[in-house]
Write a structure and sequence with these properties.
With 635 residues, this protein is α+β, with helices and mostly antiparallel strands. It has 21 helices and 15 strands. Strands 1, 2, 3, 5, 6 and 11 form a six-stranded mixed beta sheet that branches. It has a three-stranded antiparallel beta sheet with strand order 4-10-9, with no helix packed on it. Strands 7-8 form a two-stranded antiparallel sheet. 46% of the residues are buried.
Length: 635
């Protein structure tokens, strides 16, 4: 454990030379956090975008006006994107788009993810027809794209959806139909807000009465005059978080041309109307059709990582500028002086670093996956999405609480975040459901690591040894896997659900430990890449804090299994406290590395040294200047 002899520039007593060193240290951390040499390509356009006045908080808007503003901002995203086709096929830039825009407009992130990833991405990846599609209306944003899969009766079991597309041999057309109220498409953004729209609709392909499985169909929904014949749309009630124009959507025997079917190796119709598929089952065809959901999980993770970092920047800056009564009469001390305050924020900062490095690693694995490791990589993406979004919610709540009543005001950038993250927890596969799926696969089809034997006696192993702590976390995963396997074998014979119920708790603990271990490995690897020794030491200390906090709930089991001594268990608090004490002076450096634009922070009162209620505060002046512009933007 190495504590740097260096304090942040914002704290009293900082020397100019040291301030310059801190600035350089922060830049090194930023380089490591944001894709190194690829930072400008992956993140640059989106960071610049949220620095603009167009992306400042608008407190004067109704829910309907906020939705319209999100669509207006979507057009600005398209202008900044360059080639929309390239963006749709680039998982790194897509995820980064959500990382940055989610900080200022969660609704925009929802619209962008649907348009670029689910809609345009599906069209590009499954454009196996004889004639290439003209996508210019969608790449230019003359038409907005949306994606219709989930139904009222079928969410996480979307493979059982009931919408049908029946092939008419006489005309060569498809007849798209919603057969029951439960088959209505649930929550797509299909209203008239935002202009004309088209959808990629998931429906069962029926040929001569035979169900050939679920395919996607390009379906126009509306034009400048309204919804098209046979397309029925009803707005849903407002939901929590940033508003989006969620609707119920159904189809009354809507005729689609032959080219509406999205074709590929999963299925093609020949000239005689017969289906040919390289995939052997309807389920495989369905999974291929909705393959863009995996990229969507990366977008959900990215958005949640970005929101977590922003929440911490705001909370830490507020902790330094907000002063309260000290222990001596008339003394004022900053909130950050209290261990009860900065300790909680440092725990969250350590987790946010781990989340970021895990996200980078998972995106890298997905972009480089092969057919042979695709299934394992998809599972890792799902596991990471669940862990990251759950951690993000906890960080958002902690950050809001540490800002007290000031955190209640949306203009301070915190109050809406927990509810916005809820959307990421459920979207692209509910977290618990995708973890249960991963757990069922990993009980026997994955071998957890076993801690290697050490030449050093256990009592001599140090809680400040990253490798030792990392291997303990691997042992936690292996122990959970062993307990899950034993529970499954003990379960009632002839009752698959009963057996799984016995095993599911330790199996989910295995998945959680696996996620933490993957995050720790990504964190350790990032620290090793640091060129600056001070940056490496700082990152290693933050990683130690992360591991200490992750392992603390498991010390009893590790002690019982002979992986820790009683002295180790008693030392967890001491080591954690020492790490927090050593890291506290570096909090601003750690969050400055998150690289939020100064323009964004200057418009957040508590992030720029102010408060709601200050007379003639900078925010009030800025708000009065921009409110009229905001109203004009949504008209």
């Amino acid at each position: 454990m190495t504590m740097l002899p260096l304090r942040d520039k914002e704290l009293p007593g900082a020397e100019p030379g040291r301030a310059r060193r801190v600035s350089g240290l922060s830049r090194e951390l930023t380089y490591l956090l944001f894709d190194g040499e690829d930072q400008a390509h992956v993140h640059g356009a989106w960071r610049e975008l949220i620095a603009r006045d167009d992306f400042r908080h608008r407190s004067v808007l109704s829910a309907a006006e906020r939705v319209q503003l999100s669509y207006s901002r979507l057009a600005l995203v398209n202008d900044a994107a360059g080639d929309a086709r390239e963006l749709a096929l680039d998982p790194r830039r897509l995820a980064a788009l959500h990382e940055w825009t989610g900080v200022v407009d969660s609704g925009l992130g929802t619209l962008a993810g649907i348009h670029y990833n689910l809609f345009l991405g599906s069209l590009l990846e499954q454009d196996g027809g004889a004639v290439p599609r003209d996508l210019s209306d969608f790449t230019s944003m003359r038409r907005t794209g949306t994606f219709l899969c989930t139904e009222v009766d079928h969410g996480n079991d979307a493979s059982a959806l009931r919408t049908t597309a029946e092939y008419d041999r006489e005309t060569g057309e498809f007849v798209l139909h919603t057969p029951t109220p439960g088959a209505q498409k649930f929550m797509p953004n299909t209203s008239l807000t935002g202009g004309p729209k088209s959808a990629v609709v998931a429906a069962r392909l029926l040929i001569d009465g035979e169900d050939e499985g679920i395919f996607l169909f390009l379906t126009p929904l509306s034009d400048d005059r309204g919804h098209l014949p046979g397309v029925h749309v009803r707005r849903l009630p407002d939901r929590t978080g940033t508003p989006v124009d969620h609707c119920l959507t159904s189809f009354d025997r809507v005729r689609l041309p032959r080219e509406a079917l999205l074709e590929g190796e999963h299925g093609r119709l020949d000239g005689a109307g017969n289906l040919h598929s390289a995939l052997g089952s309807a389920r495989k065809r369905f999974l291929h059709s909705i393959g863009r959901v995996t990229s969507g999980k990366l977008c959900m993770s990215g958005g949640s990582v970005g929101v977590s970092r922003a929440a911490l920047v705001i909370a830490v800056r507020h902790a330094h500028s907000r002063h309260i009564s000290g222990p001596k009469l008339g003394e004022r001390v900053p909130l950050v002086a209290h261990r009860s305050h900065h300790g909680r924020l440092l725990d969250a900062i350590a987790t946010a670093y781990a989340m970021t490095f895990l996200h980078r690693e998972v995106v890298s694995r997905w972009t480089g996956h092969t057919p042979e490791n695709r299934a394992d990589t998809e599972r890792l993406v799902a596991i990471a999405k669940g862990w990251i979004t759950w951690q993000a919610r906890a960080i958002a709540i902690e950050s809001r609480e540490r800002c007290g009543a000031q955190g209640f005001f949306p203009v301070n950038g915190l109050s809406d975040l927990p509810l916005n993250i809820e959307g990421s927890i459920t979207a692209e596969g509910d977290n618990l459901v995708i973890w249960v799926k991963a757990a069922s696969e990993m009980v026997f089809n994955h071998q957890a690591e076993r801690r290697p034997e050490s030449a050093a006696p256990l009592a001599e192993r140090s809680l400040t040894d990253l490798a030792f702590l990392r291997d303990l976390l691997a042992r936690v995963e292996a122990d959970a896997q062993t307990r899950a396997r034993e529970a499954l074998r003990r379960g009632p014979s002839g009752d698959p659900l009963g057996r799984w119920n016995e095993a599911s708790t330790p199996a989910l603990e295995m998945v959680s430990a696996h996620a933490c271990l993957q995050a720790a490995d990504a964190f350790i690897a990032a620290a090793a890449r640091a060129a600056d020794p001070m940056a490496r030491n700082l990152l290693e200390d933050v990683c130690l804090l992360f591991l200490i906090r992750q392992l603390a709930p498991h010390t009893g089991t590790l002690l019982a299994e002979g992986e820790l001594t009683a002295g180790h268990v008693r030392g967890f608090h001491e080591v954690g406290n020492a790490l927090v004490a050593g890291l506290a002076p570096h909090m601003m450096t750690l969050v400055d590395a998150f690289d939020l634009p100064a323009e964004f922070l200057s418009a957040v009162p508590i992030a720029s040294g102010g408060r709601i209620g200050d007379e003639e505060d900078a925010w009030s002046t800025w708000h009065l200047r921009t409110s009229d512009r905001a109203e004009a933007a949504v008209r």
